[in-house]
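# nightly structure sweep
# worker-07 picked up a monomer target from the shared queue
# config: single-sequence mode, recycle default, output format = structure tokens
# input follows
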Amino acid sequence: MSTGLASQISDAVKSAMRAHDSVRLGTLRLLQAAMKQKMVDERIELDDAMIIAIIEKQAKQRRESIAAFDSAGRTDSANQERAELDILKEFLPQGASPEEIAAAIDAAVSQVQAKGLQGGAAMGAMMGQLKTALAGRADMAAVSAQVKARLAE
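# output follows
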């Protein structure tokens, strides 16, 4: 784990230890454990793109937990998850603006239409293209909803 992002995370862990920030420290240690697990399981060295994918996965888990805790009325647990999500967001690239997302969707629509794809095949092709274009910069669930609405037009 010698990449720039991995060293940033390592430095953040050390800072959290010095500051006695248990929430931040716990979140970052879970992230490091997930990174280490991926390295061991696949016997690879992680690059920044792989680390961002791991952070995105953990952020998605936090979003799902927040929704579940909110619906169950467990605001204290939901707030804990929100705090952890905010910590994870620090290590993700800056989010794409709504205009950038709309432009990427427009480009994907035109490419799919040029290929003559429709229905599920069009959706799959567009999401594949958008996932690479917006990796780490947009909530792909929200993008997926926008694509479905666009295809329904």
